[in-house]
Sequence to fold (260 residues):
Amino acid sequence: MDSVAPMHTNVTPSTPASSPGRAVLLNSDMGEGVGLHEFGNDEQLMRIIDVANVACGYHAGDPDVMNRTVELAAEHGVAVGSHPGLPDPVGFGRRRMVLGPEEVESIILYQTGALTAFLGKHGLPLNHIKPHGALYGMLAGDEELMAAAAGVAKLFNVPFFGLAGTAHESVCKAMGVDFIPELYVDLNYGPAGELLIQRRPEPTNPDAAADRVRKALDGGPVLAVDGTELDITFGSICVHSDAPNSVAVASAVRAVLDAR
Fold:
C-alpha cells in the first residue's frame, strides 16, 4: 500500500463544500484500458456521474479507448477532463518517477493535447485536468513540479482537480488557476490526511461511502484509519471506475447528492 499526498488536517473550509455557490459533482477515472484489455465499469458509471477523468495514453488509454470513452461521455452529457499519468503502463502509473518540472509539463501537455483532439471530434470542451496515480501524489508534495502542471491548466484555461491543503491548492491559488478539491470515498486516509493507495482496488462498502459523504456535507470530519478526525474541503467526489463494485458505490453517493 502506498501513501499519496499528505494533507493538512483540521483545516476549516473557507467555503463549505455544500454551500450554494458551487454544486458538489461526482467524478470518476475512466478510459483506463489498452486495446482489448479494458478495466472499470465506464459504461454503467456514465449514467451516474457528472464528470469523467479520461486516461490519455501513458498509464492507460490508447487512441481507440480514448475515442470510445469521449463518445460515451458525449452521449450521456458527462463533462470530460484529462487524466494524464506517468509513462509506466506496467505499473499502471502508480509508481513514482524522478522528473523535473519541464518533463512534468511536457507529459501533461502531450497527453492533454491528445485528448482534446477527441473532444473536438465529439463536440466537447476540455473541462479540467486531474493527474493520475503517482503523478497526482508527486505534484501534491512538490510546489515546483506542481507549478509546471498548473501552467498547463492555465494554458488550456481549465480548473485543476486535486487535494486541499497540498501544493495542488497553494500553487493553483498563487498562479490564478481555478482549483476543485476532491473527497475520496473508495480510498482510506492516513492520520496526516494522506491517501492510502492500493495497487489492486478492493470493494468499498456503499453504505460507508454514502455515510462519509453525508457527514462531510454536514461539515463533519472524515475519519482516518486510526480514528483521527480530518476536516476535508471538497467540491467534487471521486469514485474509481476500476474498483470491483464501483457502480454500487457511485449509486450510493449519487443518492446522497441528489437528496441535497
Remarks:
- The radius of gyration is 17 Å.
- The first helix runs from residue 42 to 45.
